[in-house]
Amino acid sequence: MKANNQNTTECIQYFFREHYGILFSIILSVIILYFYSQQPGLSTDGTVYLQIARNLLQTKELGWQASMFLPLQSIFIAVISYLFNVKDLLSVAGIVSHMMFLLLVPAVYMLALEMFEKRTAIIAAIMT
Which residues cross the membrane (predicted)? Predict the structure, then answer.
């Protein structure tokens, strides 16, 4: 059991030693979110996303609005609102927006790492 834990620790250390850029980019993203996050404003698209989420919560259907906009963000808003019993969808939309931003950083890093070199991947993740 002890050897298994040691192997896991070595794997994690190797990953972050090889991909230190992703860790740096995620930390930088969290710092940016901490200092610059605010309650999200409501755009025209945002009202449609919130309406689709409201439709999901009330009627268990997407509604006609989903034919104009991709419903993935609305589904995340509805699921988080339902799981944590939060009625204020605007606040949940802010949480989902920040969550999507934090998930985008490692995705951009990994994609850029596959296509280019490590330096370019780090710069792409930071620029995200």
Answer: 20-36, 62-84, 90-112
